[in-house]
Amino acid sequence: MTQRISKNGFTPLAQVEAYWEGLRGNRLMPNRSEIDPRGIEQALEYSFIVERIAPGIARLRIAGSHLSDLMGMEVRGMPLTSFIMPNSRRQVSDILEEVFETPATCTLELRSEQGASLPPLEARMLLMPLKSDLGDVSRILGALISVGDMGRSPRRFDVVRSSLRPILADASLPPVVTEKIPAPKPMVRTPNKALQPPKVPFRSETPRRHAPYLRLVKSDD
Known about the structure:
Layout: H1 3-6, H2 11-24, E1 47-54, E2 57-63, H3 65-71, H4 89-101, E3 104-112, E4 122-131, E5 137-147, E6 157-166
Antiparallel strand pairs: 1-2, 1-5, 3-4, 3-6, 4-5
């Protein structure tokens, strides 16, 4: 994805993408809980994580210092579209929905507004989906890098070009299989006939074949 971009001075994007790819393996995407800042330490100032709070709206939960420098303030809690010029915000909102719903990754080429104390800036933004702890696709790991003299903040950008790529699980890798061990069957004891005493038919000690059932006793007393 970022082979061409890395040649133009946007190397941290390639580092963030490689980290995300390494975590996901043959899955569609990694989980938010798997993200460790130490894994993208060299690109941490450009990285961010956003949370989907409504269709087309994603709020910054974690943001590197470069993003705060662009806005001239702390950006955590702000919509990601705060970095985008009003005429491009609808496009970015649609891209966010594509990233969440398809799912897909996206690279955006950006160009800054220009004016007094606002020298031109070129920027790139990378968006890659994550699963939340609940299993839904509602987080994005991303990075935003600008190249040039930052000038007076805040700096906002128009979208020049976007490249959206649907994610497919890698069928060439073996799937992750969770082995389930069946519960042991209850043991049924089979009686050992050799250890059992022989059965003897019951016989009465008092013969009753010719004995009368009732006996009349007569007494004159």
